[in-house]
Amino acid sequence: MYPLEPNLVALGLVVGLDYRDAGLDVHALFQRMKLHPMFRRVLEGGEMVEWGAKTIPEGGYYSVPARRAGEGVVIVGDSAGFVDVPSLKGIHYAMQSGIFAARAIFAALEVHDPSAARLGEYDRLVNDSFIMKDLYRTRNMRLAFKDGFYVGGVKATVMTATGGRFPGGKIGMESDAEVERQLTPGARPGVTADGVFKSGNATRDTIPIHLVVGKDVPAAVAEFYAHLCPAGVYELAQGTLRVNAPNCVDCKATDVLGPRWTPREGGSGPKYKRM
Hints:
It is built from ten helices and eight strands. It has 275 residues and is mainly alpha-helical. It is globular and about 55 Å long.
């Protein structure tokens, strides 16, 4: 919870997408969290002024592409995975990588050469900066929690105390695709219609579907998507997957685990004012 100004706070809940319970509903968890006395005493009597959702690229150092520059293109900020995992912050990395990108692009335009080789200067600037040094120091932070919250917490504490020297190297892990998920019997997706409205969603109802979904999605997988999405985009209807594209708030959660998000019709989507 972050205080923004008098009588206004920002409240959020972060959940890893590698959870084992396919029936886990993050929105429902969030509602329960708000009932905790620590939050309730602040929120009671107030009203929700804005709602949104966002997938955080928390892979850390080992998920950052080795090359972030190509022919006429550079990748900066969140898109490159520049996020400090312990604090889940990355705005400062986004700004600094943007500055480096501007310098590399300007130099390339001066000689009329936006080639990958010329723009590779951007990679050098990033690699020599505090961005990669910070990410390397916390490189195993997210991987540590593969062993659970308590064991991961102990490891993370030691990593912080040693500046990332412990355990050294890279913590081994299995592919997320190989991890079985169990669906909690009787679990039902939460209702988030009010949240979608509060995101300022400006999408017309007849928008072309911008979510690429495979054919013949099994009912169990469709139900997983329904629980995963915080905005009610996916529904299990008569054993088949129904996609309500206008509800999408571009959180890109399923882009990680299922249907692919693609750029949609211009002018549509959430209109955040404070997020």
